[in-house]
């Protein structure tokens, strides 16, 4: 994973271990969504750009805060805006 559990918890301002499993799953889900949006794996980068890390953290925070009512369309639209410069075009 590009974003560690500790980084995500700091971003979310979570100070306990009660939801570590949930946050780990959200990191994985957000990273997969980012890779799907980019149309390539993050393993292609020697150093992952800060914008991509921020998109992953945004996804984690959005999913964490909106567990019951997440609007995936709006989440992905914002991710696309952040990730556009890094996205592979497929013809």
TrEMBL record:
Gene3D superfamilies: Phage gp6-like head-tail connector protein. It holds the Pfam family Phage_connect_1. This is Phage gp6-like head-tail connector protein. It comes from Ruoffia halotolerans. The lineage of its organism: Bacteria, Bacillati, Bacillota, Bacilli, Lactobacillales.
């Amino acid at each position: 994973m590009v974003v560690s559990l500790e980084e995500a918890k700091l971003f979310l301002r979570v100070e306990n271990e009660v939801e570590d499993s949930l946050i780990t799953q959200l990191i994985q889900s957000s990273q997969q969504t980012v890779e799907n949006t980019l149309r390539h794996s993050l393993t292609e980068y020697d150093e992952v750009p800060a914008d991509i890390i921020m998109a992953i953290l945004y996804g984690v925070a959005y999913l964490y805060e909106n567990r019951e009512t997440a609007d995936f369309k709006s989440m992905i639209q914002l991710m696309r805006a952040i990730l556009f410069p890094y996205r592979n075009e497929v013809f």
